[in-house]
Amino acid sequence: MVEDFEVLARSVATGLRREGMAVDVVLDGTAAFERLAVTRYDVVVLDRDLPGVHGDEICRRLAHGRCETRVLMLTASGTIEDRVGGLSLGADDYLSKPFAFAELVARVRALGRRAGPPVPPTLAWGDITLDPARRVVFRAGRRLELSPREFAVLECLLAVPGLVVSAEELLERVWDEAADPFSSAVKHTVHRLRAKLGDPPVIETVREGGYRVGPA
């Protein structure tokens, strides 16, 4: 989230975290460039009029770099000329302020699905099904009540069935800048997720590797 109005930035970030997303916040264009240089994001929610480096320049460089990060550009002006201008810079979507938070969430989710390899609308493994759009998980027809982070960890694992996902990658994709890289947050979340999924066990621990969903 790149937005110089700190109250708005923090408010939106809090709302997106409640929707199960990992969110980092920066308040100017210079800090955004520094963060984008070291972290791959699925989506950047980018205010257009930023101090330091203008939002247009950030958008332009991301587009020319051909990275997978998707850009949702925000602006206080909603004229057709502004929307066309923003999209011509390489933005993937455009939203005028003020905006409805539910619409922002829907647009971020839609862009997030386009940021990586294509995945089916519903993820399934054995008798487990996960619907990313509706944010629901079922096992053997029974709905499971998962926390946002438990849901996000399971979604990451089901998106690459059978492949190992490291604890470091889960920490980067499910948590945010406030997470302690030396904490046992991933381990504890996986432990709770296993308990809720029940038997037979689904998530395997790969020694010195990470986690994966086991045989279906």
Quick structural summary:
The protein is an alpha/beta fold. The protein is built from eight helices and nine strands.
Based on secondary structure, the structural category is: alpha/beta
Give the biggest sheet: 4 strands, antiparallel
Helix fraction by DSSP (H/I, runs of at least 4): 40-55%
The whole-angstrom Rg is 18 Å
What is the H/E order? HHEHEHEHEEEEHHHEE
* Helix segment tally: 8
How many β strands by DSSP?
9
Task: Name the shape in a single word.
Answer: elongated
Distance from first to last alpha carbon: 37 Å
User: What is the number of domains?
Assistant: 2
Write down the CATH topology of the largest domain: Rossmann fold
Tell me the CATH architecture of the largest domain. Answer: 3-Layer(aba) Sandwich
**What low-confidence regions span 5 or more consecutive residues with pLDDT below 50?**
none
CATH superfamily of the largest domain: Response regulator
Q: Trace the largest sheet across and list its strands.
A: 4-5-6-7
Q: Could you describe the 3D structure shown?
A:
- The chain has helices spanning 6-18, 29-38, 55-64, 80-88, 101-114, 148-159, 167-174, 185-197; strands at 43-47, 70-75, 93-96, 123-125, 128-131, 136-139, 142-144, 203-206, 210-213.
- The protein is built from 8 helices and 9 strands.
- It folds into 2 domains: 6-114, Response regulator (Rossmann fold, 3-Layer(aba) Sandwich); 123-213, Arc Repressor Mutant, subunit A (Orthogonal Bundle), CATH 1.10.10.
- With 216 residues, it is an alpha/beta fold.
- The longest helix has 14 residues, at 101-114.
- A 4-stranded antiparallel sheet has the order 4-5-6-7, with helices on one face. Strands 1-2-3 form a 3-stranded parallel sheet.
- The protein is elongated and about 55 Å long.
